[in-house]
Amino acid sequence: MRGRRDANCDGPAMSGDAADETTAEAAPPPKPKRPSSRARRRMAVVGLILGAAIVALGLPRTVAAWRAMGAEPALSALAARRTPSAAELAAGEAALRGALAWNESGRRRGDLALLLMARAESRGADTAARRADLDEAEALLLAALPLSPGNGYGWFRLAAVREARDGPGRAVAAALAMSLDVAPNARRMWLPRLEMILRNWRHFRPDELAVARRQIRTVWRGTPWPGEEVLPAIDRNDGRVLALWSLADDPEATAAFVRLANEKDKAAAPR
Hints:
mainly alpha; 0% strand
């Protein structure tokens, strides 16, 4: 009987312990403390400041991009090798100046220089307004190129504006050589840059002349119809001797050049 009572006494005790453990396990975790109203206000202020800073940093670029859209008609005309109208040039100049007032950009400085060069071409051969446009175009390019020194178009434009100003031949050749160094395969520049090489090759240093000769070979080999595009550009600048020298290491290209040049000469000869 006693053993039975002991067993009966142990049962409730064990059940109670188990119930205590179950109760402890089922107790919910303590709720995290909510930040005080002062802390919430402080976090809100910090968020507003950060948001305002982000907006302030992005706003000038956004406005500048929007303002620069007014130059697209003139720039598109030049890209299509069409002379922009006076109204397009005026609108483009105003748009780019407005964009630069909001945000500094080497590309937009270069675009503005291009529009000024186009306007200078439309003026008289030797007028104060033409000289002023070319002077400002050169200054814009000199300011833009340090921001993007790998811009081959910018270096070519600098060479072009110096040539238009009748600047020193060495200054033209130096800018042209930089364009060849950083963008030798820019096809849009191949023909106009080829013609500038042919006009200014005597002002290259020996290492620059070697690069220029490689460019002539590249343009001749890479143009689908060199007799229709490259050869006329060479002849406009009396460049057959330099072209043949540049192609001397390629017998096939040299033979094609001689054949096309002879055919062109025969077609132009009086009958």
